[in-house]
Structure formats: C-alpha cells, structure tokens
Amino acid sequence: MTDTVAAVIERARFDGAGLLPAVIQQHDTREVLMVGWMDAEALRRTLTEGRVTFWSRSRQEYWRKGDTSGHIQLVRGAALDCDGDTLLVQVHQVGVACHTGARSCFDVDPLAPVVGGDA
After folding, report:
1. Distance (Å) of CA 118 to CA 23, 111, 115
2. In CATH, what number is assigned to the domain containing residue 32?
3. What distance in Å separates the CA atoms of residue 116 and residue 119, rounded to the nearest whole number?
4. In a domain, 108, yes or no
5. Does residue 102 sit within a domain?
6. Which of 30, 67, 105, 107 could serve as 34's disulfide partner, Cβ 3.0–4.6 Å?
7. What is the mean pLDDT of residues 100-110?
8. Closest CA to 42 of 65, 59, 69
9. How far is CA 108 from the centre of its chain?
C-alpha cells in the first residue's frame, strides 16, 4: 500500500460499523449512478486496483462491481468530502449501474419536489 493510499484511509471517517458511503458518478457526464458502502479494505482495493469494490452489508462480503454481471466500474478519480465521511468515485461505467437493469439507481423513481426560487 502506498503512503498516499494509507493517508487517505487514515483521513477517512468510517461510521460505527466501519463503513463509508461511496457515491459513484460517471466521470464525463457527472451523472450519479449509485451509492455503495466501503470499509477500509474496499477503499484500499478501489484506490489501488482501478475497479470499484464495495462491502456488501447484506451478504457480509466484498464484491467488485461487475464480476458477475459484466457491468464494471473503472475508476477515473476519487475524492473524500470535506469531513472525510463520504467518498466520491468517478468511474467509466460499462453497462448499467443498477441491479434492476437501469442505467442509474436514481433513474427508476424520480420525485417531484417543490423547486426553490432564486437566491
């Protein structure tokens, strides 16, 4: 593990379960594709292997996006937010991101919020 990756993991603020939410975004369009969870090892793998790895809370195991579906996420960039408690991963998405077959997990059920006015 490089010093840079070790420093990122040290700076990350994992929750009480040892997890960090990871927002996955298409690198060129900025489309938000999905949200997953990472522990320190999943974060290390994501930053060093070029493919996104998550910790599955339901299965209690690591899963690398696309290993069974072929819908892989190739890492193009990553950043922690200002508090270090959320990760943004910019990817090149091959295929769809959502397990339902939708391009994005956020395409399926758009809401109709009241839109705020000008500031």
Report:
1. 27, 21, 10
2. 3.10.20.810
3. 9
4. no
5. no
6. 105
7. 86
8. 65
9. 18
Tell me the residue type at 59: R
Q: Please report the DSSP string for 33-72 in residue order.
A: EEEEEE-HHHHHHHHHHSB-EEEETTTTEEEETTTTTS--
Q: Per-residue confidence at 2, pLDDT binned at 50, 70, 90?
A: low
What pLDDT, in 10s, does the model give residues 30-72?
A: 999 999 999 999 999 999 999 999 999 999 999 999 999 999 9
Mode of pairing for the β-strands spanning 20-26 and 32-38: antiparallel
The vertex-85 CA angle with 111 and 103, nearest 5°, equals 40
Residue with tokens 């994005």: 104
Distance CA 104, CA 106 (A): 5
